[in-house]
Amino acid sequence: MPSPDQSAESDEPARSRAAVRRTYEDIGDHFSKTREYAWPEVESFVDDAGGVETALDVGCGNGRHAELLAEVADSVVGLDASRALLQAATDRVGDSVTLLQGDATRLPLASASVDLAVYVATLHHLPSQAARRASLDELARVLAPGARALVSAWSTAHDRFDADPDSDVGFDTTVDWTLPGGETVPRFYHIYTPAEFERDVADSDLRLVSLELSSGNCYGVVEPEGKRT
Question: Rounded CA gap, 130 and 107, in Å?
């Protein structure tokens, strides 16, 4: 999940992104217990990639996908905004992954330093189009030439939503998380249409290599590419 950005460059109130972070601080421990296994789409992507030097997991949560990356990469960086989720990741992966608290729109990594990346179930938590596109540009910046990444976001194709998957633009919503004892915590999501997902990638410094709809999510394999002029 992304962290809050309180700079003047942000185009939405800082409290909106701060609220996203607080949500995962509040539910992080319980949320982590429900996310034990890597998603099969991520497993397939990592398996196809083979061995690499450096891998990155943006929005690493409890480390389940960073753990997978560690099987094929010499070094792995996992980044998340939530201290609660990073603690769960530490408990899971130990020192096999370098874990950082950070912002998906300002990755604390050198340009062209990453050979393989996953950015899964995080893009849709950024509460503005500008921030989402900025995060895609940041991913492009840190990817080395020839590197690829898997980006996913919830889609209008999901059966949870009564929405037309063929629409041009998605929508913002909240989805409640229920804690033990019955308390509900609303989580912000931007629900992408496939067309909008493709467009946001096209308008970033990434090139969309392939797009798949699976389990109600858009999964895009991307690689770095300069903006078209």
Answer: 16
Closest CA to 33 of 96, 100, 101, 87: 87
How far is it, in rounded angstroms, from Cα 85 to Cα 80? 7
pLDDT of residue 111: 98
Angle at CA of residue 16, ends 11 and 20, nearest 5°: 125
- 135 alpha-carbon distance from chain centroid: 9
Query: Quick count: other Cβ atoms within 10 Å of Cβ 33?
Result: 11
The tokens 């990639």 sit on which residue? 49
Residue pair 151/119 in contact (Cβ under 8 Å)? The answer is yes
Between these two residues, 121 and 28, which has the higher pLDDT value? Answer: 121
**What are the distances in angstroms from CA 131 to CA 26, 84, 139?**
23, 23, 12
Q: Give yes or no for a contact between 158 and 216, defined as CB atoms under 8 angstroms apart.
A: yes
pLDDT band at 17, cuts 50/70/90? low
- Is the pTM higher than 0.85? The answer reads yes
Give the three-state DSSP class for 94: helix
Kindly give the residue spans of alpha helices, DSSP state H, lying in 34-114.
40-49, 64-69, 83-93
Which residue type does 119 have? Y
Instruction: Read off the pLDDT of residues 104-120 as tens digits, 9 standing for 90 and up.
Output: 999 999 999 999 999 99
In order of 34, 46, 125, 152, 171, the CA distances from 132 in angstroms are 26, 23, 9, 12, 14
